[in-house]
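Dear colleagues,

For the upcoming journal club I promised to circulate an example of a predicted protein-ligand complex. I picked one with zinc ion because it came up in last month's discussion. The inputs are reproduced below in full, followed by the predicted structure.
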Amino acid sequence: MVAMTAPTHNSSLGSVRAGGSTAALRVANQRRVIDALRTGDATASITQADIARTAGLAPATVSNIVRELLLAGVVETVSGPGRGTAVLISRRAGLIAGLDIGHRHLRMAIGDLAGRVLAEHRLPLAPDHPFTQGLDMAEEMLEQLLGELQAARADVLAVGMGLPAPIDAAGLVAAASILPGWVGVDARAEAAARFGCPVHLDNDANLGALAEHRIGAGAGHDCMVYLKVSSGVGAGLILDGRLFHGGAGTAGEIGHLTVDSNGPICRCGSRGCLEAYTSVGAVGDMLHQQHPNAAMKELVAAAQEGDVAVRRTFEDVGSHLGWGVAMLANLINPSALVIGGDMAQAGDFLLDSVRGGVRRHALASVSSTLTLTVSSLGDRSGVIGALLLALDHTEVILPAAVS
Ligand SMILES: [Zn+2]
């Protein structure tokens, strides 16, 4: 199943207390300490006092549990400057991997069971690659990263994986023209067979939303939208703190809102979709005469040097996106909208006109309360989201549960 469920490491404490046995309480308290350590934030330095506060446990209880977990090799301690001894989930407790497959790249990160990234790598990928080639490369990259960490395949407990296409409730790539080499493929089963562990699959914009909401520019906003503008244009929606997948798993396809029903043919087969005016490919086509085959980085540099055509194109893209954002914002009233993907490199050249478009087309109460910003995780939001997806589905095995 594609739909992301609530983090499985949040165990039901109420029933444990009601049960009342000492062993069950011990497991529950261990779980609370572990949960306090699983922030997904690579920079977090968490002390025993922090754990006591977030887990709602007495300092002496935390101290006992940390000792048990240390003995079992589940956590380790690190003396940090200033704030006392930090407690970390040990690498020996297991590893997870995040895999972000794009139209033109493949990126993988290996993390520990707190969601901290330990190693990461990126490679270019041919746009119309067959899925077997994508998975071959992913497997090689996994071997390489594990080699860097002196870890083994068996250490990897789960893989989170993102694909730049709508993924239906059955876990299949749902749109024939969008990621041709993967159509009808059960990507999760194929990847699980390669990696030898459970694989959790979602759309790339959904994973970007997960990452930006948890540790990026959307942190603290329980109703937020991540808008990915790259080769494709799609949105990941966080509603009431959770990813929203829709009835068939493909919510957020904002790129296929119709701007002009007589407009250019879109790769989805329809006409005049938002994506046909705002994707990186559309920008490349618009600027083909002035800047043939230019990368986004080069176009942004040209805009900074005052290139009128590039600035005007970014402005037009921003206005169109602003219209699309306004449609979505009027419906769901998010408090934050985070723009990511390659187009986000255009920064204020884009954002100013997105804001203008939102002001023009959304209700004042909606636009005036919307924080609009670019992604803080940049081109890593997809892979970090994939890692967090794996994290949410992977339990730390507790010593009390084993004994
Ligand atoms: Zn379309």
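Two points we might discuss: Confidence is low (pLDDT under 50) at residues 1-18. The chain has three domains: 13-91, 93-207+383-392, 219-376.

See you all on Thursday,
B. R.
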